[in-house]
Amino acid sequence: MEEDEFFGEKTFQHHCSEFIKHSQQIGDGWEWRSSKEVLEVPLDDAEATETAAASEVIKYEYHVLYSSSYQVPVLYFRASFLDGRPLALKDIWEGVHECYQTRLQQGPWDTITQQEHPILGQPFFVLHPCKTNEFMAPVLKNSQKINRNINYITSWLSIVGPVVGLNLPLSYAIATSQDESNAL
Amino acid sequence: MTDDKDVLRDVWFGRIPTCFTLYQDEITEREAEPYYLLLPRVSYLTLVTDKVKKHFQKVMRQEDISEIWFEYEGTPLKWHYPIGLLFDLLASSSALPWNITVHFKSFPEKDLLHCPSKDAIEAHFMSCVKEADALKHKSQVINEMQKKDHKQLWMGLQNDRFDQFWAINRKLMEYPAEENGFRYIPFRIYQTTTERPFIQKLFRPVAADGQPHTLGDLLKEVCPSAIAPEDGERRNQVMIHGIEPMLETPLQWLSEHLSYPDNFLHISIIPKQTE
């Protein structure tokens, strides 16, 4: 195992399992899945139903995967109407809040693109991972400075999730800081 | 005596003779003749098939045309995979020319990524190049390059300009003098028999004891079924760019010479042909 990894796969798995524990407590649907053939790049997914227009219900599916190339988690997602029709990229864009749209349009690497899911082989939408370290580093540094326990997955998902309609309940963050006070 | 640089040219200029036929259920105003084309192994389907599209659209009505997609023996072809990879993986055991069917309707949303423009191909290509450099150099080399250098890589590929491409790509193939190779080797291993589209893992070109890793070492570690059984008749072929490199080949050398323009080694594991 690599010692010099900033956020290695084992660390990813650990933070995910803490995240899942809380998810099970509040029943919001995240699951941990291992790839059947080879034990690597695990994924979780959650389904959230949101109403777009008056009569159209859209189902969102979110998967958190680990990128060994960038050593960060990556958010894959797709959306479809209840009859199975998938949403196109332009429909997804319309769902992104205005305040995020400008930011995303600035850099080609920060944008939402369609990619092949590395385990399922199907088209998903992805937020490009290469800037993740840039925005996560200050979060991690600050947490060390004030000696506060954080869960990388919770912090990361609370930053990238809202861009694509995924809002984490506050209870995730509360749970993590409670773990810390229990440990003291 | 073949120079290593000749290998780079041979890889770049590899071609596959292909016959494009319009899907029989497409609505045409006249009979559609098949269209023949030599496809560059290192490029992408939607980048090199403008002439194919024009040829078939000539006999169709505008309203019957939507996004073009390609299929081989019932399998939709992923445009975001290099052409040579698709051929080696799906059609290398069949006789030439490669027979591809062209579709203009019923886009298979669950199987294929959309390709709305050439910009989408460029974005995908550059994304792969970036990821390869993240593995090789922690992104240092690609991030130090100017935007115009990135553009030159893409233009070199798009316009089939070997020298233009390699003027920049050679920098992505360098490594610090004190090292023995890249940090990790960018590779993907494909098999049609598995659910998962490909295997990709962290793998170093040199072992802890300083011995260079070989292609065989890589396969043994991440895909042992590819070279099974070790004693006796092998069940599979290991193919890159239409050839079977010796398993003793150093991985670092393979990465420098047999990578695709996206800087990845795309390796196909296919069942051995029985004569």
Automatic annotation (TrEMBL), chain B:
This is Autophagy protein 5. It comes from Ictidomys tridecemlineatus. The gene is ATG5. Residues 184-269 form the Autophagy protein ATG5 UblB domain. The lineage of its organism: Eukaryota, Metazoa, Chordata, Craniata, Vertebrata. It is found in: Cytoplasm; Preautophagosomal structure membrane. It comes from the Eukaryota. Belongs to the ATG5 family. Residues 119-174 form the Autophagy protein ATG5 alpha-helical bundle region domain. The keyword Zinc-finger does not apply. Its main location: cytoplasm. One of its GO terms (molecular function) is Atg8-family ligase activity. Keywords: Acetylation, Apoptosis, Autophagy, Cytoplasm, Immunity, Isopeptide bond, Membrane, Ubl conjugation. It is a peripheral membrane protein. GO terms for cellular component: Atg12-Atg5-Atg16 complex; autophagosome; axon; axoneme; glutamatergic synapse; mitochondria-associated endoplasmic reticulum membrane contact site; phagophore; phagophore assembly site membrane. Forms a conjugate with ATG12. Part of the minor complex composed of 4 sets of ATG12-ATG5 and ATG16L1 (400 kDa); this complex interacts with ATG3 leading to disruption of ATG7 interaction and promotion of ATG8-like proteins lipidation. Forms an 800-kDa complex composed of ATG12-ATG5 and ATG16L2. The ATG12-ATG5 conjugate interacts with RAB33A; this interaction is bridged by ATG16L1 and promotes ATG12-ATG5-ATG16L1 complex recruitment to phagophores. Interacts with TECPR1; the interaction is direct and does not take place when ATG16L1 is associated with the ATG5-ATG12 conjugate. Residues 11-104 form the Autophagy protein ATG5 UblA domain. GO terms for biological process: aggrephagy; antigen processing and presentation of endogenous antigen; autophagosome assembly; autophagy of mitochondrion; axonal transport; blood vessel remodeling; cardiac muscle cell apoptotic process; cellular response to nitrogen starvation.
